[in-house]
Design goal:
The chain is of the alpha/beta class and 212 residues long. It is 34% helix and 15% strand. The chain has 2 domains: 157 residues, Ribosomal Protein L4, Chain: A (3-Layer(aba) Sandwich), CATH 3.40.1370; 41 residues, no CATH class. α4 packs across α5.
Length: 212
């Protein structure tokens, strides 16, 4: 897959880059995408839900009345789940929602998501952005020049850049990600994938290694 490299003003530089078909040209696997997204969303859950059982609620442990001879049902104490203010039966307890996925499954899901973006022509490769200081307005101008409108964008860079991160974090609808942190959910959640030239070159190198 060959794409033109654009500059920060949205104009073509006359250079192109080849994104490997081993990553961007595969047949997407919807099931592994589902598994990867499910794992990501499950990991976001804190799992701190908790209710008190009859052993934990406040109240007297005295038996309300004798067991037999009253003509009524047997009763324990006020912490009985049948009474208001009593404990809860089979309520939720803290636990994790993490799901384990094999590395190959996660990699296939990520490549499938990238393949969908390639099919939709929703990938932009632009020159590396170097900012001397954080400037949200300047970064917004760069995005405007790419003609992506109000679409949600994922901006991918090869390594952490503090000025760039501080510039994009307050732009509505834009998320930044390191190439090493790229995940299936973020790719699918964005309408447009913006790769810096350095990040795109790493993809190309990875494709060449896979082919070799």
């Amino acid at each position: 897959m060959q794409l033109d490299i654009v500059n920060s003003k949205g104009a073509k530089t006359g250079r192109t880059i080849e994104l490997p078909d081993e990553i961007f040209g595969i047949e997407p696997n919807d099931h592994v995408i589902y598994l990867a997204v499910k794992q990501y969303q499950s990991a976001q859950r804190q799992g701190t839900h908790k209710v008190k059982t009859r052993m934990e609620v406040h109240g007297s442990s005295k038996k309300l009345h004798k067991q037999k001879g009253t003509g009524g049902a047997r009763k324990g104490n006020l912490r009985n789940p049948l009474y208001k203010g009593g404990g809860t039966i089979f309520g939720p307890k803290p636990h994790g929602y993490d799901i384990k996925l094999n590395r190959k499954v996660k990699d296939l899901a990520k490549m499938s998501a990238l393949a969908y973006k390639a099919k939709d022509n929703a990938i932009v490769v632009m020159e590396d952005v170097n900012m001397d200081k954080p400037k949200t307005k300047e970064f917004s101008g760069i995005l405007s020049s790419l003609n992506i409108g109000r679409k949600k964008a994922l901006f991918v860079i090869p390594e952490y850049n503090n000025n760039l991160y501080l510039s994009l974090r307050n732009v509505a609808g834009v998320n930044g990600s390191l190439l090493s942190d790229l995940n299936t959910y973020d790719i699918l959640n964005a309408n447009v994938l913006i790769l810096t030239e350095s990040a795109a070159k790493l993809f190309s190198e990875a494709g060449e290694e896979a082919a070799a």
